[in-house]
NAD(P)-dependent dehydrogenase (Short-subunit alcohol dehydrogenase family)
Amino acid sequence: MITNEQAADTALLTPTPSVFSLEGKRALITGGGSGIGFDIARCMTLAGADVIVTGRREQPLIDAVDALGPKANYMVNDVTVRAELDQLVDTIERQYGPIDILVNNAGINMKKPALEVTDEEFDRVVHTNLNAVFSLTRACATRMVERNSGVVIMISSMAAYYGIDRVAAYGASKSAVEGMVKILASEWSGKGVRVNAIAPGFIETAMSKTAMGGDPDRFARAMRRTPMGTFGQPQDIGWAAVFLASEAARYITGASLPVDGGNSIGF
Ligand code: NDP
């Protein structure tokens, strides 16, 4: 027997595409011209969103994003130039309209034994993966809070949780992002803005190929840590992002969703 209160919510209990639809929403996806970010953009446009994708390079990323159709636009932007991020958000909102969804995807890795990492290298990774993420999130969330509506998604990493060798700066930056998710989610939970993370495992992109360095031993080690026994594909992260951005996830904030073929079950 369904009560009246439950009946009012049956739309959310029915797994129809509409619950997951992003129709009428606009997403800003940093570093979305290639790799995981590109597939987040692809999945979000398939779910009905308009997307603005950023990256440092022009070609071939402009052509790649153009191929996603009229709902996708590319803008050249380096997230590490923090003083320009407020202006970026302002320009996008004036040109296209309000940003409903921010996906902080742009990130860099650096694999090196900790004793060989210079201060400059450490700072470069933290600057991109953490400091810039805070600045852009603040710029977008200022407007989202005013509108009492918005979603922020951080692309974190399982390196935030585990002692993976040779990623001191990367792991530290992603752990800090995971901490920030909980704080921002708490601060903005009464202001209509949800903040969550996705923690990918081994996903097949340029970054993971570089990290593996073509070394079959490293690849075999990574697969031993992955109960499902395969690399994930960028669209596995894309659909998780669609879910977190959608109404289906309206009661989820401050969470980190592992999308990792089971890495997080434990090594
Ligand atoms: P890639 O290196 O394949 O792509 C990164 C993208 O980010 C590129 O399009 C790049 O474009 C852009 N980018 C890098 N720096 C900047 C910057 N300063 N400003 C704007 N754009 C920038 O990485 P992935 O797709 O693999 O990774 C995406 C995210 O997922 C990262 O945050 C990463 O840490 C995370 N992740 C990836 C995993 C994996 O296995 N691949 C695992 C766990 C997490 P351009 O060079 O033109 O700027």
